[in-house]
Amino acid sequence: MSNYHVEPAHxxxxxxxxxxxxxxxxxxxxMSRRQLLRLSLGAGMLLWLTEVTAGTIGFIxxxxxxxxxxxxxxxxxxxVKLANANLPIAEGFPAYFSEARAFVVLVDPSRQEFLPxxxxxxxxxxxxxxxxxxxxxxxxCKPNPCQRNFWLECxxxxxxxxxxxxxxxxxQFGPAPRSMDRFAIEVDxxxxxxxxxxxxxxxxxPIAVGQPGIIPPKSPTGCID
Length: 225
Ligand code: FES
Known about the structure:
The chain has three helices and ten strands, in the order H-H-E-H-E-E-E-E-E-E-E-E-E. By secondary structure, it is an alpha+beta fold. The protein folds into two domains: 11-64; 71-201, Rieske Iron-sulfur Protein (3-layer Sandwich), CATH 2.102.10.10. The strands form three sheets. A four-stranded antiparallel beta sheet has the order 1-10-9-4. Strands 2-3-5 form a three-stranded antiparallel beta sheet, covered by helices on one side.
């Protein structure tokens, strides 16, 4: 037996340290791992920046285009009447303005005008007008004004509010825990109302029917069961 044997030509040979170093110095064809890593990092950063920018623009867009979240001019009481000619606005019935997501209500119908001034709490007595946020304080449905009793009634779970958004106390008047929320408002010298939909004040606690502070319904029955 002989110790002599022949290495096959196709068998891979181990690389020496020098050969490995030389290989590393050679330019890589295609994309190296380092380039791929940099590219992935760059793409990730770009994606993150795009998301942040889009989110910021989405957040401030309503204010930029004077939509909900900004100040919205409604106009004078005459403008409100004209826009709701089929409704008894002069008697204090709520007028709905979708662009402001608000009901506009004359506080004291014996005075047929909005009074100049500013009300950041939205209480509205001094300006003779109140702007109510359309969201029911229970779970957010939109109450509807009922012409039969002049109240606002929530179709979802039956909460009832007087025409100025005051919640009637008692389980029979629905589960909303408070009255409807109010927007800050201002009325200019010409009597034109502007609603600041970026500023909301929570409505007060419910009041029992018959007590001061809530307007009794015009009829014992309303528009919902
Ligand atoms: Fe209005 Fe429930 S959402 S009563």
